[in-house]
Amino acid sequence: MNKYFKKTVFIVLTYLIFVLPNYANEISKYIRQSDFELKSTVSVFVKDLKNNDVLYKKNEQKLLNPASILKALTFGTAYKVLGQGYKFETALYKDKSNNLYVKLGGDTLLTEPDLEELFAQFKQKNRDFKINNIYIDDTIIDKTPYPSGWMEDDIWPVSRAITPYIVDNNYTNILIKRSSLSKRIDIIQNDDYKLPIVNELNAVDKESGIQKIKFERLYGDESSIVNLKGDIARDENILLPVLKPEINFNIKLQNAIKKNEIKFNRQIISKKIPAGAYKAAYVSHTIEDISKKILLNSDNFSAEVVFKVAAAKYINYAHPATLDDAINMFNKINEKHITDGIKIADGSGVSRYNLVSSEFVSNVLEDLVKNTNIKPLFATSSEGTLNERLLFLKDNLRAKTGTLSKMSSIAGFVTTEKNTDTIFVIIVQNSPKRKAVLKNFENTIVSLIYKEY
């Protein structure tokens, strides 16, 4: 090697080590000192969005479970397919034989008052219309209740079954009330939809007793009978997912029809809208409205429904969209970023089969933020799952968090103290530490990104 070349290399390395600020070492030093790597895998990727410089990387290609930061990717892909301002419609169609069709649109914000408004609109425009039959077109998405890879602790009553039949969040309200005259516990159901409940609740001392309720489905996962066990120290209102969403929807639909004094011939059944029928009324919510449930509050149900609704459009409504359709859509749209081992198994990040790298998450998010207006839809400090976190960053932070047993994640965008627009991904896997410790660990890394770059 030429002595002049050696001298040049030495000068350059000296400059890099001693002259340029080595900010990455601050993050590396913190991770080392935190002892997280003794039993956990820590993956971090940070990039300058303007000039594409990678500012920091660690285990950036390791395949890990993303938890709910996956929602940012699946919702983002759905946002790309459906488009800004897309409306999740629940509509009434009228055919030539005087039949009405309720077309379901996967609107996770639909309420019973919305259904009442839907029929009020129709009645106002069609006062003398004689209705023969009312049908429901439920062909937007399929009715597979839970994705593959969801565990027993992830399904009812933690998560609602995925379905096209959605109204009032598919919850039913139950009051658990201590009797004033005895040790008896009363269960009061005020909603029209009723759960068959076996009551094995016990009253305990109000002062020292601990409230503990266990929910079970008797006779298997397909059963409609619920068993409530536990110790009750105080009255409590609880929300339980309805076990039969189609029945719940039909009850509230018929309430809306009755309230508007609309008469028809037969019971409501499902049937696809025929060719030639036209839209007579509709109610809707925008994708931006629904994004708050997904990106701010991390609602698994909404994430799965929206993922499938986007797939329905992607396949041009050829059949009720399945999760496989949604995953194929995701893989096609993001194929340039997918490397060996990357696997998307659901739309919400609940499945233990999901595998991504922090670099992959960053690449997909970067593509989304450059091609859609999704960034303002992410939570900032004090919003949703970022409540009480990184408050000093205020609107300089837009991010999505994730939590599963023994792991935590956060991904998003930070405008730094030096006005650098960065994208960052942090995934911590297989950690025995408490949730609060994991979140504080992430907070410190995000703070270092903000202060150093």
Helix/strand class: alpha+beta
Report the CATH superfamily of the largest domain: DD-peptidase/beta-lactamase superfamily
Our count of helices gives: 10
Query: What is the approximate shape?
Result: globular
If strands are numbered along the chain, what order do they take across the biggest sheet? 2-1-16-15-14
Q: What's the total number of strands?
A: 16
Structurally, how many domains make up the residues?
3
What would CATH call the architecture of the largest domain?
3-Layer(aba) Sandwich
Quick one: CATH class of the largest domain? Alpha Beta
Tell me about the largest β-sheet: 5 strands, antiparallel
Cα(first) to Cα(last) distance is 36 Å
> Do you know the CATH topology of the largest domain?
Beta-lactamase
Hey, roughly how much beta strand do the residues contain? 15-25%
Binned, the helix content reads 25-40%
Low-pLDDT ranges: 9-21
Tell me, rounded to a whole number, the average pLDDT: 92
What string gives the helices and strands in order?
Answer: HHEEHEEHEEEEEEEHEEHHHHEEEH
Radius of gyration: 26 Å
Write a compact overview of the structure shown.
Helices cover 30% and strands 23% of the residues. By secondary structure, the chain is α+β, with helices and mostly antiparallel strands. The radius of gyration is 26 Å and the shape is globular.
Describe the 3D structure.
By secondary structure, the protein is α+β, with helices and mostly antiparallel strands. The protein has three domains: 18-66 and 356-452, Beta-lactamase, CATH 3.40.710; 87-144 and 245-292, D-Ala-D-Ala carboxypeptidase C, peptidase S13 (D-tyrosyl-trna(Tyr) Deacylase, Chain: A); 152-241, no CATH class. It has ten helices and 16 strands. Strands 2-1-16-15-14 form a five-stranded antiparallel β-sheet, with helices on both faces. Helix 3 (70-82) runs parallel beside helix 7 (300-314), helix 4 packs across helix 5 and helix 7 packs across helix 8. The longest helix is centred in the C-terminal third of the chain and has 18 residues, at 435-452. The chain starts with a helix and ends with a helix.
